Amino acid sequence: MIVTIDGPAGAGKSTVARELARRLGFCFLDTGAMYRAVAWAAARQGLAWDDQTAVAELAAHLPLVFDSHRILVDGQDVTLAIRSQEVTHNTRYVADNPLVRAQLVALQRRLAHGRHVVTEGRDQGTVAFPAAECKFFLIASPRERARRRWQQLQERGESMMLEDVLAQQNQRDARDARRACGPLTPAPDALIVDTDGLTQTQVVDTLERLVRERGTADAWE
Ligand code: C5P
After folding, report:
1. Full-prediction pTM beyond 0.70?
2. How far is the centre of ligand 1, averaged over its atoms, from the C-alpha of 60 (Å)?
3. Residues with CB under 6 A from ligand 1
4. Which of 23, 77, 143, 183 could form a disulfide with 179 if both were Cys (CB 3.0 to 4.6 A apart)?
């Protein structure tokens, strides 16, 4: 069974998807981390962002390992490095590259093959897994999402004005939505879940209930 969770930055997808996967006993795919890891590796190799073929070639052969809560590139733990502001900024060039998207969607399908999976990103219900049994699209108001992101930055000791976080987020949303290939948009059969005013536990409770209602008995076998 495939459960997809898409939505804009800061809607709480990662934490919710990870916890939902744990509760269901499913694998968890963090597809944003894949785009980030490619951006990290491309910058390290000094590739030009407009050399779409070279960046896609890198994506095709990147030795990427998801090990519990860690992400390794060629054996190096990049879990924290790929969350830096610099990598967040550079990831847009990778995410806008249709050749990279094709490589990463193929990787996502290979990883999910024959498994029960909760996968989160922007295009999981639309492009990567259009036949997924259960699709969610998480939303929250822009200010609430920016507030959550601002709080995370505070906890990591990175100070930034809330208004600046909001402005950057608006830019990222607009870019994700107008991308020609794999844009941020709900699949027609996705359930839209508004997380404003809900705790993460309440969101996971809701999603878990809906998945269990939809899943047939053999989905867990
Ligand atoms: O979800 P996260 O913020 O880690 O994603 C990083 C970036 O990767 C997003 O801003 C988005 O542009 C891109 N992305 C994407 N498709 C996905 C997942 C992430 O384009 N499936």
Report:
1. yes
2. 17
3. 9, 31-32, 35-36, 91-92, 95, 121-123, 172, 176
4. 183
